[in-house]
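Can't paste images in this forum, so I'm doing it all in text. The chain is below; anyone willing to post the predicted structure tokens underneath?
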Amino acid sequence: MDILGTTLRVCVDDLEAAVVFYERLAGAKALRFERGGVQVAAVGCFLLMSGPEAELEVLRKVAATIAVKDVDEAHQLLSELGARVIAGPVPTPVGRNLIAMHPDGVVYEYVDRNVGAAR
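Text version of the structure:
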């Protein structure tokens, strides 16, 4: 499995203020979208999230987002290594993802950029 990079997940109260800070920090413009009632802004290696506390409580349980070449390949390897896939793979605005709990109990999101891939 090729790991292409990681994204740090940050839950914030004021998304607009956070976007200004992180755009300057990362030197990049935010890519914004909404998912499940949560407003999201991807800025460089940061994924800023703001929304209802009930939704954020779930999102805080995911330690990081790991970009991979192919979520199906990640799913297979994670299963072979004893990780438990909690959700997915499912389509997202930028590709597909799955959520997995590693044997040590840490939860990660795995994403690919296979936009438009029929699976």
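The mean pLDDT is 90. The CA atoms of residues 19 and 56 lie 17 Å apart.
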